[in-house]
Design brief:
Length: 502
């Protein structure tokens, strides 16, 4: 999709000529200060009457379209509820904008304006508000129509944020810049994950990485199968054996730190372009969703592009071990033993626990860069879905400061994490009779044993593992989250990088 153009300008709501003017209301708070009063006066008290009649009360997700009948330069007002004032956070604004832009599109408007909200969360700066409004609008307008011959949905082309004072414009513009980068990255991830797996192969992922490297000015290295064999990436190669699609090991490097030798942040993303489960075949129901098993890899690729476009002052490396997990004649079998890049051996008791295998080689390779922080993100376990449902990302880690930084970034981005224990006692479930460890630990604590498995390949590097199996796919459309691939985790990573850069 074409990304919406967003700008900020100083202006008044009663003089702005636009197809639609969006106004955000808190529940039970009456007319928004100044803007609401000015508009109500021009409309002869119609807004106040609407609120008094309870036809619109500002409840979260509530939307009303009000035609101005030429009493204002704006053809229509779109009133959107934020919910209760004491519960207002940045994500409530993001959700309101998601609802707003859908209604704007429904009215077939090409462009719209929004009055800068008069009520904002405590301590939220114009940068925060500008970023949040932008994210909600762009993400809420998302559509994937590449393969639809009857696609008729028109994109909303532009949004203007109206600020009452000129001194707000600099910060608002910076917020817009960040919001466009984070939302555009999420759209990129959604697109990659929406493409079917006969299109989005490991080779296509490598091609996308080449485009990112060229556009963003980052260094790219792609290891082919023979190079992986020479290095000893037996876990990744074992997973790829059943597929005709060759694996790719993709490394992107961005150097934005003033000191070029600053230790980098390294991101590693699980990039399984389709997961049948291999010989341990998955049930047929919902298997089509496994085209999004590459979400982690898509997100670290998108985070790299965003960091370079924002010119963040840090060094960053993104690693994508990419493969397809298929049950071919050469496929890895239950009971096989693979030797990982680290030298540790793994008994493969279930070929559907392939994500941790490719990540074991990805993480071991990442430690060669001596990272200041190492983060992996993966659609790793069905157990995460059972434990956390669809509203939280599972987090594990070895470094308290890094975990707290991730937690804060998640709250800011509206992509929250929940920490789970990484206790050594769980490793008993991973002990193997024939190898250093096995790749599954039984039904109990499946998310924990998967994370503990990964922990054996990171050495003493500060490390966090994010399990996004609970959030990567939505069964229904929500305010700014589409049905299907969500891209959740992308803005969390980018917000973490932005916060680290400040």
């Amino acid at each position: 999709m074409n990304i919406m153009r967003v700008k900020a300008k100083q202006g008044r709501v009663d003089t702005e000529a636009t197809d639609a003017l969006v106004l955000l209301f808190c529940e039970g708070e009456g007319l928004p200060q100044e803007d609401g009063v000015i508009l109500d006066r021009a409309l002869g008290g119609a807004l106040r009457e609407l609120l008094q009649s309870k036809e619109f009360d500002g409840k979260a997700g509530e939307v009303v379209v009000f035609h101005t009948h030429r009493k204002l330069p704006a053809k229509r007002l779109i009133l959107v509820g934020l919910g209760k004032k004491h519960e207002l956070g940045l994500d409530q604004i993001r959700q309101a904008m998601g609802h707003a832009v859908k209604r704007v599109r429904h009215t077939k408007c090409d462009a719209f304006a929004i009055a800068l909200p008069s009520i904002v969360p405590h301590e939220a700066s114009p940068i925060d508000v500008g970023q949040t409004v932008t994210e909600g609008a762009i993400l809420g307008s998302y559509q994937f129509t590449t393969y639809r011959s009857d696609a008729s949905g028109k994109d909303v082309a532009a949004m203007t944020i109206l600020a009452p004072r000129k001194d707000q414009l600099h910060q608002l513009s910076e917020g817009i810049r960040r919001g466009v980068a984070t939302a555009e990255a999420t759209v990129f991830v959604r697109d990659l994950c929406n493409h079917p797996s006969n299109v989005m192969t490991p080779t296509r992922i490598a091609s996308e990485a080449k485009t990112v490297a060229k556009d963003a000015g980052v260094n790219l290295k792609i290891l082919e199968q023979k190079e992986m064999e020479k290095l000893g990436m037996g876990a990744l190669l074992g997973v790829a054996k059943g597929s005709h699609e060759p694996p790719k090991f993709i490394i992107l490097q961005y150097q934005g730190a003033k000191k070029k030798d600053d230790r980098p942040v390294v991101l590693v993303g699980k990039t399984i372009t389709f997961d049948t489960g291999g010989i341990s075949l998955k049930p047929a129901e919902n298997m089509e969703q496994m085209k999004a098993d590459m979400t982690g890899g898509a997100e670290v690729l998108a985070a790299m592009r965003a960091a370079a476009r924002l010119k963040l002052p840090l060094n960053l490396i993104s690693i994508l071990p990419a493969a397809e997990n298929m049950p071919g004649g050469r496929a890895m079998r239950p009971g096989d033993v693979v030797k990982t890049l680290s030298g540790k051996t793994v008994e493969v008791q279930n070929t559907d626990a392939e994500g941790r295998l490719i990540l074991s080689d990805g993480l071991a390779y990442a430690t060669r860069f001596k990272p200041a922080a190492l983060i992996d993100i993966a659609t790793l376990t069905g157990a995460c879905v059972v434990a956390l449902g669809q509203f939280a990302i599972g987090m594990f880690g070895t470094d308290a400061a890094l975990k707290e930084a991730i937690r804060k970034a998640g709250l800011r981005a509206g992509e929250r994490v929940w920490e789970m224990p990484l206790w050594e006692e769980y490793f008993e479930q991973l002990r193997s009779d024939v190898a250093d460890m096995r790749n599954i630990g039984g039904r109990g604590g499946g998310m924990i044993t998967a994370a503990l498995f990964l922990s054996k390949f990171v050495g003493d590097v500060p490390w966090v593992h994010l399990d996004i199996a609970s959030t990567d796919w939505s069964e229904r459309e929500r305010a700014y989250i589409p049905k299907g691939p969500t891209g959740i985790g992308t803005r969390l990573l980018i917000q973490f990088l932005i916060n680290r850069s400040l």
